[in-house]
Write a structure and sequence with these properties.
By secondary structure, this protein is of the alpha/beta class. Helix content is 35%, strand content 20%. A hairpin with a 6-residue loop joins strand 9 (187-188) and strand 10. It is globular, with a radius of gyration of 17 Å. It starts with a helix and ends in a 6-residue tail after the last strand.
């Protein structure tokens, strides 16, 4: 059996176990065949938790933050962004397509408060998406967030902070998808100071 056929059979089996409620959920496609064909339903499930981490050395990896902002920009409604540090570069978020007027920032003193705000935002049901910047994400906490997202139909996006702060990084979570986002060097073009990069998806 080919890898594609095996994946299709596995998805069908999971869908039959999970039931009709889960198979009919709405998704947000990327519009890239290389990505959408590898995601159940052909895109990111809206009422679900998704985890994004970067490869950079900064406390909050810029490529991962822009990836999350790009997803939030394509959803309707306000985006609630929960954090413990005000280190988000707003002009870059705007360049990713997320208008500053659509973002509600919540800055708390610790990650426990971020988790509480994140869960409340997901349960609210009136937001386009909810983003939380976290170093730690346990299976128990992620399961609660996944259930809240499923109940309201709101997408939850966890933006993991640098791996040196995350003692549980790489451990299982209840997130529907987990992403590792990094940058690649651009190819030089004849015009000085300008580069081009081909898309890479693994």
């Amino acid at each position: 059996m080919s890898r594609t056929a095996a994946m299709g059979a596995l998805r069908a089996r999971i869908e039959s176990i999970e039931g009709e409620r889960r198979t009919s959920r709405a998704t947000l496609p990327f519009g890239l065949r290389e990505v959408d064909t590898r995601l159940p339903g052909g895109g990111l499930v809206l009422g679900a938790l998704h985890e994004v981490a970067g490869d950079g050395n900064g406390a909050l990896d810029g490529a991962a933050a822009l990836f999350v902002a790009g997803i939030a920009a394509r959803l309707k409604g306000k985006a609630l962004w929960c954090m413990t540090r005000a280190d988000l570069f707003a002009p870059a978020i705007t360049q990713a397509g997320l208008d500053p007027d659509r973002i509600i920032y919540v800055e708390t003193g610790d990650e426990k408060s971020v988790l509480a705000c994140f869960e409340e935002g997901l349960r609210h049901g009136g937001l386009g998406c909810v983003v939380a910047e976290l170093a730690q994400l346990s299976m128990t906490a992620s399961r609660r967030l996944q259930i809240a997202a499923e109940a309201s139909g709101t997408m939850g996006l966890v933006l993991r902070r640098r791996q040196t702060e995350a003692t549980d990084f790489g451990q299982p979570t209840a997130a529907s998808t987990r992403w590792r986002v990094s940058v690649l060097p651009s190819r030089p073009l004849p015009v000085p100071g300008v580069g081009d990069i081909a898309g890479w998806w693994n």
